[in-house]
Design a protein that fits this description.
about 210 residues, alpha/beta, Rossmann fold, Ybab, Chain: A, 7 helices, 8 strands
Length: about 210
Amino acid sequence: MQRFADRIDAGAALGASLASSFAGVVVLGIPRGGVPVAFEVAVALTSPLDVVIVRKIGAPTQRELAMGAIGEGGAVVVENDVVRSQKVSDAQFADVVARERDELERRVQLYCGAKERTNITGQTVVIVDDGIATGSSVRVACQVARLRGASRLVVATPVSGVEAATRLRREVDEFVALVVVEGPFAVGNCYEHFEQTSDEQVLNCLERGAARW
């Protein structure tokens, strides 16, 4: 399986693969780890960079397992099969959503509160994450982009699971993954260096992206 050195390396490779096919688009990165990848894509496409903020709803006893995701503007995706298999009650689900909504609002204020959002009404948007395992976060990001008026949705990622890729190809206008992995996998295993991205790194990418326009 192909491995990337880090998110910058992955973003540069992804941007190079997209450069000949996409022009006049807006790139939306999913914080936090998707933003450094999205920055490199935006550079390659000579496109503006913004964020689409979502939060995974992790199972109470297995937080990496997504029961769904929430996004700006009230967008929500629920993975009912996971909720049932984990025997999660309505109250437990609501508790996790409330906790994640607090973090979602914190990130909206931190990343977007001091600047005007990029107008994506009628635009083709390229939604970028550093990897897609279940697809819940990206699917809710697509909901948010549609609510913001995007006319065409492209999802692009360095690495995706095969089931998520199959599902997203049906739900968006175009799906691009440099590597598609069979079976369960951890996104971090596809990178040599996969440290957690900080708020400061996200803000730095957004500032550098804004400085190019």
